Amino acid sequence: MEQEFYRGLADRVRTIAEKADPFTRRRLLDLAKRYDTKGGSRPAHSVERPLPLPRTTPPGTIFSGPGEA
To answer: How far apart are CA 29 and CA 20, in angstroms?
Structure first.
């Protein structure tokens, strides 16, 4: 019964993702994959790229420039 719950959540999240902007869509589809894993199934039809890793430090060009003290 818990598996059906997570499969239902995955389906609902995918439905919402269809109407979302590209960034939100990727995040929602990633969430749906996690629900599929908990539900015991992995759909083979959806292959998405992973989200890029967040930057931990800003680029060096911000800190070097003429006139900065």
So the answer is: 11
